[in-house]
Amino acid sequence: MTEVSILFLRACVALLAMPIYLLSFLGIWEPFCKKIFFPFFLEKFSAIHNRKTKKQKQELFRNLPDFTRPSGELKLLEIGTGCGTNFQFYPPGCKVTCTDINPNFQQGLSKSMNKNQHVHYERFLVAAGEDLHQVPSGSVDAVICTLVLCSVHSVNSTLKEVLRVLRPGGAFYFLEHVAADHSSWQYFWQQIFHPTWKLIFDGCCLTREIWKNLEQANFSELNLRHISIALPWTPIQAYIIGYAVK
Q1: In CATH, what number is assigned to the domain containing residue 132?
Q2: Any transmembrane segments, and where (predicted)?
Q3: Residue 4: how many CB atoms within 10 A of its CB?
Q4: What is the tens place of the pLDDT at every residue in 72-118?
Q5: Helix count (H) and strand count (E) of the chain?
């Protein structure tokens, strides 16, 4: 009965979003989403999300300096930099390589760079998390990834690349929304909204259990917590936060 209800309500949501499905069928939605809608949406959403998660991010990134190499250098690689909402939490003098599969975030990214002059920006790479071939193996001290693993094509392939580019003893920092508890109403609504949400928000998946991928990855140490962050009017509330050491 639950599956029937989910299918029925999915159809209702799809009906409400029919213009977007039509634009997608005509091949118009995806380029419009990547170039105009999603960069605009992400800049607004990131500002709200950062206010909601400021304390959690401050706590998460507090020990970043512990991974500074003996030379005094701290090289960071951020996967899915977007509008650069994490820059304010990085330690002074660190060197950041920014990557994103979508090159259309430049306006928001430039604003964040100008606001955060304490960080040294090395370069921006147009790259997917699953393919960071432009970054040499073992070359970075920490990799940062927030609200990105929900939309990569393969979480496992992305984590393999993370492990490749990290130096031994380096760390991977994450903050990701995940599937809610399967017995909860939240998970019920996540299943309903999932197909339409994924279409509208550039591949974002609501029901991924990313903690399982992290537990199965070849990290020597994993510090992971499940937390709840309420975002009104969205099916996103369950998160995982922490860092893993290569």
Answers
A1: 3.40.50.150
A2: 7-29
A3: 8
A4: 999 999 999 999 999 999 999 999 999 999 988 888 888 999 999 99
A5: 8, 7
